[in-house]
């Protein structure tokens, strides 16, 4: 490796440390890798680049930026990590114990939560919290056909603890009108799991062109919105059902709400008192 300091750090950790500084194409490739870690990185460069929607040289630049001499060395590290994970008795006990006596659906949800949090680093969480606690800007939230209730739930909480929060509802033309109010200090939070909605992709692209940051909650297959997102939460959603489960994304949303509330404790306390006074009046 070109940097001996990365020898004792997992690749997922390296990516979390450097995600904010990566160019857009490399960041997208890194997000795709984390969403299906480490299996995507064990594919050929061509397969990896096709899945991420970037060029093969972009993948190789990412690998080099992470401190590896070449793609073969990068894959060897991933294989070592995978082998260590499979051989660890503690890992097997941690992953298997809660599910042993659970019904298949519940076991799948528990595993989804485990896998989602395994790939959702503290650094990534802190970055999203910083973005959503910037009260100089506004926060717009929206979801798809089945995930919009998550957007509404998160919006309801954020609107209590900070100003400038709006849940986008109604027809797509109404959402697009709101683009007039979006600027570089603002954030659009989008929930989009398969089957992905073209309307949300159009909104994300338009917001991105205005310099508005996009925070995406999606599944491990990654919504096309990913290519316009500054931050991506890839929750695990597959369960033994005709329907995907949004439980992991809901829990991540609640965790973010709790941390944002803590960070804005003084401001939110004053805001809540004023709300109560208005309601009492």
Mean pLDDT: 88
What is the CATH superfamily of the largest domain? Glucose-6-phosphate isomerase like protein, domain 1
Structural class: alpha/beta
Q: What number of domains?
A: 2
The biggest beta sheet is recorded as: 5 strands, parallel
Shape: globular
State the CATH architecture of the largest domain: 3-Layer(aba) Sandwich
Give the key terms.
single chain; 281 residues; alpha/beta; Arc Repressor Mutant, subunit A; Rossmann fold; 2 domains; five-stranded parallel beta sheet; 13 helices; disordered N terminus
In short:
The protein is of the alpha/beta class and 281 residues long.
Describe this structure in words.
Helix 2 (24-35) crosses helix 3 (45-52). By secondary structure, the chain is of the alpha/beta class. The longest helix has 17 residues, at 71-87. It folds into 2 domains: 9-86, Winged helix-like DNA-binding domain superfamily/Winged helix DNA-binding domain (Arc Repressor Mutant, subunit A, Orthogonal Bundle), CATH 1.10.10.10; 122-280, Rossmann fold (3-Layer(aba) Sandwich), CATH 3.40.50.10490. The protein has a 5-stranded parallel β-sheet, with helices on both faces. The chain is built from 13 helices and 5 strands. The chain is globular.
Describe how the helices and strands are arranged.
Layout: H1 11-18, H2 24-35, H3 45-52, H4 56-65, H5 71-87, H6 89-96, H7 104-118, H8 122-132, E1 139-143, H9 148-161, E2 165-167, H10 172-177, E3 187-191, H11 198-209, E4 213-219, E5 231-235, H12 247-263, H13 265-280
Parallel strand pairs: 1-2, 1-3, 3-4, 4-5
Helix pairs in contact: 2-3, 2-4, 3-4, 7-12, 8-12, 9-12
């Amino acid at each position: 490796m070109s940097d001996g300091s990365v020898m004792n750090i997992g690749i997922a950790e390296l990516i979390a440390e450097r995600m904010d500084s990566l160019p857009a194409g490399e960041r997208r490739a890194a997000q795709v890798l984390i969403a299906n870690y480490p299996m995507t990185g064990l594919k050929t460069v061509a397969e990896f680049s096709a899945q991420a929607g970037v060029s093969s040289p972009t993948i190789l630049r990412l690998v080099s930026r992470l401190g590896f001499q070449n793609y073969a060395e990068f894959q060897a590290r991933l294989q070592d990590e995978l082998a260590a994970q499979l051989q660890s008795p503690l890992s097997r006990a941690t992953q298997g114990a809660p599910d042993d006596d659970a019904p298949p659906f519940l076991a799948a949800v528990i595993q989804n939560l485990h896998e989602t949090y395994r790939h959702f680093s503290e650094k990534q969480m802190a970055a999203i919290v910083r973005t959503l606690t910037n009260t100089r800007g506004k926060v717009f939230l929206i979801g798809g056909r089945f995930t919009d209730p998550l957007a509404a739930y998160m919006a309801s909480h954020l609107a209590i603890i900070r100003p400038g929060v709006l849940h986008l509802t109604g027809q797509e033309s109404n959402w697009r009108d709101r683009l007039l109010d979006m600027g570089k200090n603002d954030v659009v939070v989008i929930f989009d799991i398969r089957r992905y909605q073209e309307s949300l992709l159009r909104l994300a692209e338009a917001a991105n062109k205005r310099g508005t940051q996009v925070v995406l909650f999606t599944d491990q297959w990654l919504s096309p919105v990913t290519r316009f997102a500054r931050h991506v939460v890839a929750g695990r959603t597959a369960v033994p059902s005709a329907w995907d489960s949004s439980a992991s994304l809901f829990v991540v949303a609640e965790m973010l709400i709790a941390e944002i509330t803590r960070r804005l404790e003084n401001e939110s306390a004053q805001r809540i008192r004023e709300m109560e006074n208005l309601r009492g009046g």
